């Protein structure tokens, strides 16, 4: 018997669900988050996993959307499915009453090489921290977050032109294949779980991947250009790294920056100084070196290339304000 229950919500989880659905495994049920309002219009929308289920899975496969994962009725339904294992991708933290149900355990796919980058945003933080590689891990869920015994791992290179969106796409597809391989090992009784502490090298600093909050997204122009470039990569296409431009007349404009280019140029200008070169190149001084801004979005406007932005704004004597200054 190869019955499993799949749990996941966003687009990252859809590729894994599709890979499992197209395999010989039997999906007993799919669990995802409830529908919720999204966007400016607050229109109620189904999560991507639900949309995939409705469009691709047979109608006799139950779709569960519990508000409360500890709800006795929800737990009763899970037990009644008699699944041998659960597969989890980008879902909520499961209570012990749930992850202990299947006899072969509950498997989670995580977008890092655990024990590094435990947390909600491993793809973003690997880029922000300037890593050259990251990876994917499948592990057995236990009582703590991202600490369970490891089943399989694969390394993923981070390319120079990667941002969070591009890396997300590659890892989504590669992760789906890794999860299927893991579930097949689990169900065949051939898995060999490894405690995470055995993979941690002596005195290696463990880096974390907390949820991205607004305080993580503001650009500090005193930082070196390379650090700012990595922040922009890690936050593109969403939520976007941001800063505030102060014009010569004192007016301010909040902008998001989505793409930058590292130059080899040094500068003695104060960090945050904006320089326009050849009338169509937007540069900014940093704590070390100049960085070229390629794509930018003014508040309330669409994302555009910087040369188009320069046609709409006079940046003579303009600069990015420092974090110590008010940007409201």
- The poorly predicted ranges are none
Helix content: 25-40%
| Approximate shape | elongated
CATH topology of the largest domain: Rossmann fold
**What is the total tally of β strands?**
16
Largest sheet: 7 strands, mixed
Walkthrough of the structure:
- It is a single chain.
- It is built from 9 helices and 16 strands.
- With 328 residues, the chain is an alpha+beta fold.
- The chain has 2 domains: 3-199, Rossmann fold, CATH 3.40.50.170; 216-320, Roll (Methionyl-tRNA Fmet Formyltransferase, Chain A, domain 2), CATH 3.10.25.
- α1 links the parallel β1 (3-8) and β2.
- The termini are far apart.
Characteristics of this structure?
alpha+beta; seven-stranded mixed beta sheet; seven-stranded antiparallel beta sheet; Rossmann fold; Methionyl-tRNA Fmet Formyltransferase, Chain A, domain 2; 2 domains; 328 residues; single chain
Gist?
Helix content is 26%, strand content 26%. The protein is α+β, with helices and mostly antiparallel strands and 328 residues long.
SSE layout and pairing:
Layout: E1 3-8, H1 11-21, E2 26-31, E3 36-38, E4 43-45, H2 48-56, E5 63-64, H3 72-80, E6 85-89, H4 96-99, E7 106-110, H5 122-128, E8 133-140, E9 150-157, H6 164-188, H7 214-217, H8 225-234, E10 241-246, E11 252-262, E12 274-277, E13 281-285, E14 290-298, E15 304-305, H9 306-312, E16 319-320
Parallel strand pairs: 1-2, 1-6, 2-5, 6-7
Antiparallel strand pairs: 3-4, 7-8, 8-9, 10-11, 10-16, 11-14, 12-13, 13-14, 14-15
Helix pairs in contact: 1-6, 5-8
